[in-house]
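Standup notes
- HV: blocked on the assembly model, inputs below
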Amino acid sequence: MTAAISAGAAILAGLASVAAALLALGLVALSPMGPGGRAGPRLRVAAAVLVAGAWAVALCDLVFGLAPARWELPFLLAGVRPELALDAVSGFFLVALLPVGVAGLAAGAAPGGVAVLLAGVVLAVLAGEGATLALGVALAAGAAALRLRDAAAGRWPMAWVGWLAVPALAMVLAVPGGDLRFAALRINPPDGAVAAAMLGLVLAGGGAVAGLVPWHGWLGRVAGRAEGGLLAAALVTGLGVYLLVRVGFDLAGPGEAWWGVPLMLAGAAGAMRGAARAAQAGRLDAVLAGAAVAQAGLVALALGIALAARAVDDGPTATMALSAALFGVLAFGWTQALWAVVAGAVAEGAGSLELSLLGGLAQRMRLTTIGALAGGLALAVLPPGAGFAALWLMAQAAVTLPRGGGADWWALALLALAALAVAGGLLGFAVARVLGVAFLGRPRAPRAAAADEVAPALRWVMLVLSAAVLGCGLLPVAVLTLAAPAVRFLAGPVGQGVRLAGTGWDGAAPLGLALLLALAGALVAAVVRARSPAGHRVAPAWDGGQGPAPAWLPFGDPATQIGAVGFAQPLADGLGKLAGTPRLGLPGISRRAARLVARGRALGEPARVGAVLLAMLLLYLVGAW
Amino acid sequence: MVSALLALLAQALHLVLMLAAAPLLAGLVARLEARMQGRAGPPLLQAWRDIGRALARLPVVAEGTSWLLRAAPGLRLAVLVVAACLVPSFSRDMTLAPAADLLVVFGLLALARALAALGALDEGGAAAGQAASAMLARGAMAAPAVLLVVFGLALAAGGTGLAGILAVRWADAPGLLPALLPLGLALLLAAAADGGPGPTPELSGRHEALAAAGDAMRLTVWLALVAVLFLPPFLPPPRLDPAAVVGDWMVFLPVWVAKMVLLAAGLAAARSLALWPRAREVPGVLALAALLAVLGVAMLFAGQRWR
């Protein structure tokens, strides 16, 4: 027992030093006198190796099931003694999020910002008391804000309002125990108004960081930042889900059934709106940002189901929903990382992320196409991909939600299922559209016709990420095994002794289905080989009898190939008004704040960095107080 | 041991049945449709012959297309064959019955649709691209109706497994029997709206043959799903005695054939009477299907409450 505790403490200390090292590296790279982008490669490799090591350590911690560890740091920060803690939940989130960070360090444009962001994520996930949590979130949010600083400012204020809820949350955490430490809070769980305030603040803060409706604007604005922004978004949304899980399930006490309802509503709205945006956006990164909003919504939906089911002592449903949510955190995060690398390769190799300037990339970017197909299977929630596994698990939780309940529970389950169906259908459409327009067919621009394959240094990143995403889809049970201790911890007393049935996508079914598909493919191939001549003949395209295009149209007539806008037209016609993006939010405040931000943009780079650092410091001081 | 062997035999027989039925059903629908319109129509085996003839020809592929165009028809057929293996016909105790899940079956149908669309898009032609995008949009809009039907059935059974859904038929879920009518109607409407004309890319030789076989297999899977979920008499009850099991097969095999012929006749009638929804009617039809599915779920709820 003592050996296990000391091993846990050693792991915790190691992870904490990784966070500190990352922070130092990142700050050096970001500082005006630092090496900046020129010393990138060495810094990049050092940081990536560091984080990969931390990931391996966190994985060992989960696999060997070490006892939870706590560590009080031997110094004071703004009058608070920081405390770190490592348990099954933080271990699982580290295992899920650190690979995204490795991909970000290896592929991102500015490793310094990613290092600071990762340090903030590690710090927040390892935090054992409120002030450290707020500091970690502020670091991560500040670094993400730096990464995304060029994005249009219109929606930022909404995000800031949400992010500012995090230090307020840290203050409320101190109310029941008289102390910011989570351990004290677990001894004196909050009740009544304090618990409700905690829930409201975590919905605002965690929801904003996770990119839930109505705070999804900042996620949508990662468009234009290509792979760096998308990877940062994947990390920050994961951190937001961690906040929701840690406070909503662990710190805010046993809770009541209605707690799940706002989370389910926000999740359902986010899933549907994000997917609708992904199905119609004109740029690859905007499509991916929409998909990220949809995936965050799906995870929040599952968390809402779990929260409601746990409060009415429905252990099996809560366990299934929590498993679905944690599986979603890992699988969606890795899928987003893969797509971010693919988008980066397309931006670099084909010169644009505008779908109407791409096309025919499968001919010249074979490896990237394989990455896109692997990521597409997961993103399109089609079997046997990782997205389908997540959707399957969520659907099982939703169909058992109304067990023995009244009409309200049936209505909630129906809402959840409808959101799953709408989001699933739209995501499938979005992926087929991206693959069909960008990767297949004829090139739509000279630059796309001369596209280059992804840089050799990134090939391994792409291959490993593709294999990891495919593996998540084929063996969800491996991920669920890693998540099981966290699920048991979060489900509380009602989850004890509940095991997943293991008969479907929570067991060996995906691998079996893949095997069946291979068998059927072999059967078809055998018939074809026996009855059909081998090979094929290549001839000019018939193209509806159009005839050869004139010499000044070297890629054929663009009018005879469907484009990105025309592709979405049948869906847009069908969806009607749903297709628009109605503005949620407070127009007056947001206009005024936008003016403020516009003034800030005129200040220049160093002043902006300073302002963000100042804001982070302020956040931290408020949180510590 | 005996039951496992019987299950394997049932699975093999089922697979052979589905593979043989697919082109025959396509031929039957075409012939019945022609008859209803006063034409003689093609012979029943015409679809089989067309597929064989196309298989024997060397395929011609358009310039500038990738491997996906050549691989898509075969992959799609393989996906649909797996889906066909999972939808039971005359016996509930097949080897793959524990793996059969309604969500998976519809997921495989969506995967097949995506493969067909990607193959058509790779050609880069105008008509094929438009047809592919229209097909994908119909599929995306049909997803809510289809999945709400799945969820209606799953809410009664507590899971999306096909075995569990088929086990809850008469006694356990009081609201289920009346709810089967709106749910079945919703699935039929969704199938009709979803099953409009697909893309017709420039395929020839074995690619054409595999695409035609895939179309036939897709139709068969849809009809078999409706037959097993909504058309009584459903599947025989589980039995232990092997002789009784084989006796049940002898009864339910012809029953299944009769149900499929009935559904094919209904399909042909709907097509020849111009009941098929047109492109601009599809969203409305699908909204109606989703509403019917919600109605079915409400009936289920009412049945559970007033037990």
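- HV (later): unblocked. Residues 377 and 385 of chain A are 5 Å apart (CA to CA). Residues 1-255+598-625 of chain A form one domain.
- Next: hand off to the docking folks.
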